Amino acid sequence: MLQFRFAAESDTGLVRGHNEDSGFAGPYLLAVADGVGGAAAGEVASATTAYVVSALSLAHPGTDPLGLLHSAIEKSTEQVRAGVEADPAKQGMATTLTAILTDGVRFGLAHVGDTRAYLLHSGVLRQLTHDHTLVQEMVDAGRMSAEEAAVSPHRHIVLQAVDGRSVPTPDLTWIDLEAGDRLLLCTDGLTDLIGDADIQRLLAEDSPRLAAFRLVRAALEAGGVDNITCVVADLVDAEPVVGAGLLVGSARDIGNVVDPAAVRPVRSA
Protein backbone atom coordinates (compact mmCIF):
# COMPACT_ATOMS: atom_id res chain seq x y z
CA MET A 1 0.00 0.00 0.00
CA LEU A 2 1.45 3.37 -0.99
CA GLN A 3 1.85 5.90 1.81
CA PHE A 4 3.96 8.82 2.98
CA ARG A 5 7.03 8.93 5.24
CA PHE A 6 6.99 12.56 6.23
CA ALA A 7 8.45 15.52 8.06
CA ALA A 8 7.15 19.06 8.56
CA GLU A 9 8.71 22.33 9.68
CA SER A 10 7.11 25.74 10.25
CA ASP A 11 8.81 28.96 11.34
CA THR A 12 7.47 32.44 12.03
CA GLY A 13 10.41 33.96 10.17
CA LEU A 14 12.44 37.03 11.08
CA VAL A 15 9.93 39.79 10.34
CA ARG A 16 6.37 38.66 11.11
CA GLY A 17 5.06 38.91 14.63
CA HIS A 18 3.23 35.58 14.57
CA ASN A 19 2.77 32.52 12.41
CA GLU A 20 -0.26 32.46 10.10
CA ASP A 21 0.83 29.24 8.35
CA SER A 22 -0.57 25.81 9.17
CA GLY A 23 0.49 22.37 8.01
CA PHE A 24 -0.35 18.70 8.43
CA ALA A 25 1.63 15.61 7.49
CA GLY A 26 0.47 12.04 7.94
CA PRO A 27 0.76 8.64 6.28
CA TYR A 28 -2.02 9.42 3.79
CA LEU A 29 -2.43 13.21 3.81
CA LEU A 30 -0.13 16.18 3.28
CA ALA A 31 -1.51 19.71 3.59
CA VAL A 32 -0.28 23.29 3.87
CA ALA A 33 -2.41 26.40 4.40
CA ASP A 34 -1.17 29.99 4.43
CA GLY A 35 -3.30 32.60 6.18
CA VAL A 36 -3.52 35.52 3.79
CA GLY A 37 -1.05 38.17 4.94
CA GLY A 38 -2.51 41.45 6.15
CA ALA A 39 -5.98 40.04 6.69
CA ALA A 40 -7.57 39.69 10.10
CA ALA A 41 -6.93 36.38 11.86
CA GLY A 42 -5.17 34.61 9.02
CA GLU A 43 -3.92 32.06 11.54
CA VAL A 44 -7.53 31.16 12.41
CA ALA A 45 -8.46 30.60 8.77
CA SER A 46 -5.39 28.45 8.07
CA ALA A 47 -5.61 26.44 11.30
CA THR A 48 -9.31 25.80 10.80
CA THR A 49 -8.79 24.66 7.22
CA ALA A 50 -5.86 22.39 8.09
CA TYR A 51 -7.87 20.94 10.97
CA VAL A 52 -10.95 20.25 8.84
CA VAL A 53 -8.97 18.57 6.06
CA SER A 54 -6.93 16.42 8.45
CA ALA A 55 -9.89 15.48 10.69
CA LEU A 56 -12.03 14.38 7.75
CA SER A 57 -9.21 12.39 6.15
CA LEU A 58 -8.42 10.63 9.42
CA ALA A 59 -12.09 9.81 9.97
CA HIS A 60 -12.52 8.34 6.49
CA PRO A 61 -9.46 6.31 5.47
CA GLY A 62 -9.74 4.90 1.97
CA THR A 63 -12.38 7.43 0.89
CA ASP A 64 -12.25 8.80 -2.67
CA PRO A 65 -9.41 11.33 -2.32
CA LEU A 66 -10.73 14.06 -4.59
CA GLY A 67 -14.27 13.76 -3.27
CA LEU A 68 -13.09 14.09 0.32
CA LEU A 69 -10.82 17.04 -0.46
CA HIS A 70 -13.67 18.84 -2.21
CA SER A 71 -15.95 18.24 0.78
CA ALA A 72 -13.23 19.45 3.14
CA ILE A 73 -12.84 22.72 1.24
CA GLU A 74 -16.60 23.30 1.38
CA LYS A 75 -16.62 22.55 5.11
CA SER A 76 -13.62 24.81 5.71
CA THR A 77 -15.42 27.63 3.92
CA GLU A 78 -18.45 27.12 6.16
CA GLN A 79 -16.26 27.22 9.25
CA VAL A 80 -14.39 30.37 8.22
CA ARG A 81 -17.75 32.02 7.56
CA ALA A 82 -18.99 30.91 10.99
CA GLY A 83 -15.87 32.37 12.59
CA VAL A 84 -16.58 35.78 11.05
CA GLU A 85 -20.25 35.64 12.06
CA ALA A 86 -19.24 34.86 15.65
CA ASP A 87 -16.57 37.59 15.72
CA PRO A 88 -16.94 40.38 13.13
CA ALA A 89 -13.40 41.54 13.97
CA LYS A 90 -12.23 38.53 11.95
CA GLN A 91 -13.87 39.87 8.79
CA GLY A 92 -11.44 39.39 5.91
CA MET A 93 -9.63 36.32 7.23
CA ALA A 94 -8.70 33.88 4.50
CA THR A 95 -6.25 31.12 3.65
CA THR A 96 -4.72 29.21 0.79
CA LEU A 97 -4.72 25.41 0.77
CA THR A 98 -2.70 22.77 -1.02
CA ALA A 99 -3.30 19.14 -0.07
CA ILE A 100 -2.45 15.68 -1.40
CA LEU A 101 -4.53 12.72 -0.19
CA THR A 102 -4.11 9.05 -1.07
CA ASP A 103 -6.24 5.95 -0.56
CA GLY A 104 -3.12 3.85 -0.99
CA VAL A 105 -3.46 3.61 -4.75
CA ARG A 106 -4.68 6.95 -6.14
CA PHE A 107 -3.42 10.44 -5.33
CA GLY A 108 -5.69 13.47 -5.34
CA LEU A 109 -4.36 17.03 -5.32
CA ALA A 110 -6.46 20.00 -4.18
CA HIS A 111 -5.13 23.52 -4.67
CA VAL A 112 -6.48 26.97 -3.80
CA GLY A 113 -4.24 30.05 -3.88
CA ASP A 114 -0.45 30.21 -4.18
CA THR A 115 0.77 27.56 -1.76
CA ARG A 116 2.75 25.14 -3.93
CA ALA A 117 3.35 21.43 -4.33
CA TYR A 118 6.48 20.05 -5.98
CA LEU A 119 7.47 16.56 -7.08
CA LEU A 120 11.07 15.34 -7.08
CA HIS A 121 11.16 12.32 -9.40
CA SER A 122 14.43 10.69 -10.45
CA GLY A 123 16.29 13.83 -9.38
CA VAL A 124 14.11 16.19 -11.47
CA LEU A 125 11.94 18.83 -9.78
CA ARG A 126 8.48 19.61 -11.17
CA GLN A 127 5.87 22.03 -9.86
CA LEU A 128 2.49 20.30 -9.53
CA THR A 129 0.37 23.37 -8.80
CA HIS A 130 -0.46 26.53 -10.72
CA ASP A 131 -0.64 29.73 -8.67
CA HIS A 132 -4.05 31.39 -8.40
CA THR A 133 -2.59 34.90 -8.39
CA LEU A 134 -3.02 38.09 -10.37
CA VAL A 135 0.54 38.00 -11.70
CA GLN A 136 0.26 34.35 -12.75
CA GLU A 137 -2.90 35.21 -14.66
CA MET A 138 -0.98 38.01 -16.39
CA VAL A 139 1.88 35.64 -17.22
CA ASP A 140 -0.60 33.13 -18.65
CA ALA A 141 -2.11 35.89 -20.79
CA GLY A 142 1.33 36.97 -22.07
CA ARG A 143 1.11 40.38 -20.38
CA MET A 144 4.01 39.78 -17.98
CA SER A 145 7.14 37.65 -18.00
CA ALA A 146 7.86 35.10 -15.27
CA GLU A 147 10.86 37.22 -14.25
CA GLU A 148 8.68 40.32 -13.89
CA ALA A 149 6.09 38.35 -11.93
CA ALA A 150 8.71 37.18 -9.44
CA VAL A 151 9.45 40.76 -8.34
CA SER A 152 6.06 42.38 -8.91
CA PRO A 153 4.61 44.23 -5.89
CA HIS A 154 1.30 42.55 -6.78
CA ARG A 155 2.61 38.97 -6.72
CA HIS A 156 0.79 38.14 -3.48
CA ILE A 157 -2.68 39.08 -4.69
CA VAL A 158 -4.50 35.74 -4.73
CA LEU A 159 -7.56 35.17 -6.88
CA GLN A 160 -8.75 32.07 -5.02
CA ALA A 161 -8.87 31.54 -1.26
CA VAL A 162 -10.88 29.88 1.49
CA ASP A 163 -12.39 33.08 2.85
CA GLY A 164 -15.92 32.29 3.97
CA ARG A 165 -17.53 34.70 1.50
CA SER A 166 -17.98 32.21 -1.33
CA VAL A 167 -16.93 28.65 -2.01
CA PRO A 168 -13.69 28.72 -4.03
CA THR A 169 -13.23 26.76 -7.23
CA PRO A 170 -10.22 24.59 -6.37
CA ASP A 171 -7.97 22.79 -8.79
CA LEU A 172 -8.83 19.12 -8.17
CA THR A 173 -6.58 16.75 -10.08
CA TRP A 174 -5.29 13.20 -10.03
CA ILE A 175 -1.51 12.97 -9.99
CA ASP A 176 0.70 10.02 -10.93
CA LEU A 177 3.19 9.08 -8.23
CA GLU A 178 5.30 6.02 -7.50
CA ALA A 179 7.38 4.63 -4.69
CA GLY A 180 10.63 6.56 -4.39
CA ASP A 181 9.10 9.91 -5.28
CA ARG A 182 9.57 12.85 -2.90
CA LEU A 183 6.99 15.61 -2.43
CA LEU A 184 7.26 19.14 -1.09
CA LEU A 185 4.32 21.30 -0.07
CA CYS A 186 5.32 24.80 0.98
CA THR A 187 4.16 28.36 1.52
CA ASP A 188 5.45 31.38 -0.38
CA GLY A 189 7.70 32.19 2.56
CA LEU A 190 9.99 29.64 0.92
CA THR A 191 9.33 30.14 -2.79
CA ASP A 192 9.58 33.94 -2.71
CA LEU A 193 13.17 33.64 -1.51
CA ILE A 194 14.51 30.32 -2.80
CA GLY A 195 14.61 29.48 -6.50
CA ASP A 196 13.75 26.14 -8.05
CA ALA A 197 17.39 25.10 -8.51
CA ASP A 198 18.13 25.52 -4.80
CA ILE A 199 14.82 23.90 -3.83
CA GLN A 200 15.76 20.89 -5.93
CA ARG A 201 19.21 20.69 -4.35
CA LEU A 202 17.94 21.02 -0.77
CA LEU A 203 14.98 18.72 -1.31
CA ALA A 204 17.35 15.95 -2.37
CA GLU A 205 18.80 15.69 1.16
CA ASP A 206 18.97 12.17 2.61
CA SER A 207 15.82 12.31 4.75
CA PRO A 208 12.55 14.26 4.66
CA ARG A 209 13.36 15.67 8.10
CA LEU A 210 16.75 17.00 7.01
CA ALA A 211 15.33 18.35 3.76
CA ALA A 212 12.50 20.20 5.53
CA PHE A 213 14.91 21.64 8.09
CA ARG A 214 17.39 22.88 5.48
CA LEU A 215 14.69 24.37 3.27
CA VAL A 216 13.33 26.43 6.17
CA ARG A 217 16.85 27.42 7.23
CA ALA A 218 17.65 28.56 3.69
CA ALA A 219 14.62 30.85 3.68
CA LEU A 220 15.64 32.27 7.06
CA GLU A 221 19.16 32.91 5.82
CA ALA A 222 17.70 34.65 2.76
CA GLY A 223 15.84 37.12 4.98
CA GLY A 224 12.93 35.23 6.48
CA VAL A 225 10.51 38.00 5.53
CA ASP A 226 7.42 35.78 5.84
CA ASN A 227 6.25 32.71 7.70
CA ILE A 228 7.82 29.55 6.25
CA THR A 229 6.23 26.10 6.21
CA CYS A 230 7.58 23.01 4.44
CA VAL A 231 6.07 19.53 4.40
CA VAL A 232 8.36 16.91 2.83
CA ALA A 233 7.38 13.30 2.23
CA ASP A 234 8.77 10.21 0.56
CA LEU A 235 6.37 7.79 -1.08
CA VAL A 236 6.86 4.20 0.05
CA ASP A 237 5.10 0.89 -0.51
CA ALA A 238 4.44 -0.67 2.89
CA GLU A 239 1.85 -2.35 5.07
CA PRO A 240 -1.06 -0.10 6.13
CA VAL A 241 -0.40 1.98 9.23
CA VAL A 242 -2.56 3.91 11.67
CA GLY A 243 -1.18 7.30 12.61
CA ALA A 244 -2.66 10.66 13.47
CA GLY A 245 0.11 12.62 11.79
CA LEU A 246 1.77 15.91 12.66
CA LEU A 247 0.31 19.42 12.87
CA VAL A 248 2.63 22.43 12.57
CA GLY A 249 2.32 26.20 12.64
CA SER A 250 -0.84 27.83 13.96
CA ALA A 251 -2.74 24.54 13.63
CA ARG A 252 -0.88 23.25 16.68
CA ASP A 253 -3.06 25.51 18.85
CA ILE A 254 -6.60 24.12 18.89
CA GLY A 255 -7.71 27.55 20.09
CA ASN A 256 -7.13 28.82 16.54
CA VAL A 257 -9.76 26.43 15.14
CA VAL A 258 -13.20 28.02 14.83
CA ASP A 259 -15.19 25.01 16.07
CA PRO A 260 -13.47 21.62 16.24
CA ALA A 261 -16.73 19.93 17.26
CA ALA A 262 -18.41 21.07 14.03
CA VAL A 263 -16.40 18.67 11.90
CA ARG A 264 -18.69 15.76 11.19
CA PRO A 265 -18.03 12.58 9.20
CA VAL A 266 -18.74 12.74 5.48
CA ARG A 267 -21.63 10.36 4.92
CA SER A 268 -21.39 8.05 1.95
CA ALA A 269 -24.40 7.22 -0.22
Molecular structure report:
The protein has helices at residues 42-59, 65-86, 134-140, 146-151, 188-191, 196-203, 208-221, and strands at 2-11, 21-25, 29-34, 97-102, 107-112, 116-121, 124-127, 171-174, 182-186, 228-237, 246-249. With 269 residues, the chain is of the alpha+beta class. It has one domain: PPM-type phosphatase domain (Phosphatase 2c, domain 1). The strands form two sheets. It has a six-stranded antiparallel β-sheet, with helices on one face. The longest helix is centred in the N-terminal third of the chain and has 22 residues, at 65-86. The two termini are 25 Å apart. The model has no long low-confidence stretch (mean pLDDT 92).
Give the SSE map.
Elements: E1 2-11, E2 21-25, E3 29-34, H1 42-59, H2 65-86, E4 97-102, E5 107-112, E6 116-121, E7 124-127, H3 134-140, H4 146-151, E8 171-174, E9 182-186, H5 188-191, H6 196-203, H7 208-221, E10 228-237, E11 246-249
Antiparallel strand pairs: 1-10, 2-3, 2-11, 3-4, 4-5, 5-8, 6-7, 6-9, 9-10
Keywords:
single chain; 269 residues; alpha+beta; Phosphatase 2c, domain 1; six-stranded antiparallel sheet; five-stranded antiparallel sheet
CATH topology: Phosphatase 2c, domain 1
* Strand count: 11
Count helical runs: 7
Write down the domain tally: 1
Ranges where pLDDT stays below 50 over 5 or more residues in a row are none
Largest sheet, described in full?
A: 6 strands, antiparallel
The residue-averaged pLDDT reads 92
Name of the CATH class:
Alpha Beta
Kindly report the spatial arrangement of strands forming the biggest sheet.
Answer: 8-5-4-3-2-11
What would you give as the CATH superfamily? PPM-type phosphatase domain
Radius of gyration: 17 Å
Known CATH architecture: 4-Layer Sandwich
Proportion of helical residues: 25-40%
Secondary-structure element series: EEEHHEEEEHHEEHHHEE
What is the terminal separation in angstroms?
25 Å
Percent of residues in β-strands: 15-25%
Tertiary shape: globular
Question: Which structural category fits the helices and strands?
Answer: alpha+beta
